[in-house]
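Lab channel / #folding
Pinned by the channel admin:
"Please post every new chain as: sequence first, then the structure tokens as a reply. Keep commentary short and put observations after the output so the thread stays searchable."

First post following the new format, from NK:
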Amino acid sequence: MVEDGAKVIKAIALLTGCQNTALVWRASPTLSAMLQSFLLNFMTARERCDGCVQMPPSTALTPIKFLWLEASAGGHLAALMATTGSHKFLEGVTGGNLDQSSSIIGAIDYYGPTDFVLRSKTQPSRANEKGSVVYDLLGGGAHEKIAAAKLASACYHVSNDDQPLLVFHGTRDRTVLIDQSKAIETKYKEAGLSIRFYTIEGARHGGNVFYKDENAKRLITFLGEQMKSKTN
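Reply from TO:
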């Protein structure tokens, strides 16, 4: 996936002339990575944007605009990156280049959670029980840590200046229920924002089906559109 992603972004950059745009992606995080505190994980992501903005001119790539692509727990982060560009508290105070914007121009969320309050009701075993990923992420059950759950949920940050989202989710996903992607779709549509949500019939939590054939074309189309519209 990483190699394919690199090929995609290079091809689009060459075709559109938008070589000042970077695609940021990670392999799906391991469980141990998810157990980091939400703020540390999220602010680190923002610092990755800040730190790259002022790369020396001699570097091969000097990105000034970012697209964010991740899956599962990383999809959760991608949706947050799209919806919190104007959230001063989440910008953090470390990492250097604090005068630079860490806003992105679009995000791709593969089957990530977007509303932990909703998840505490529809999937309590994964959001409320001690030892669950969300419990460790928030420092308690989402049904009790409501303020933290909202802070860590893209659905509660949606505003009219948020960036376009491309979302994929399988209909048979039992790890992150599809209601999580439907929730962010609803919020985006209510705000009149750009979102494309593709349900993948029969797909579970992950698999090559998300990254090939028609879904690969959907990704490439979205990337190309954002790069052309935001970097010209």
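NK: Residues 1-7, 26-40, 51-63 have pLDDT under 50 and may be disordered.
TO: also worth noting, The chain has two domains: 2-113+160-231, 116-152.
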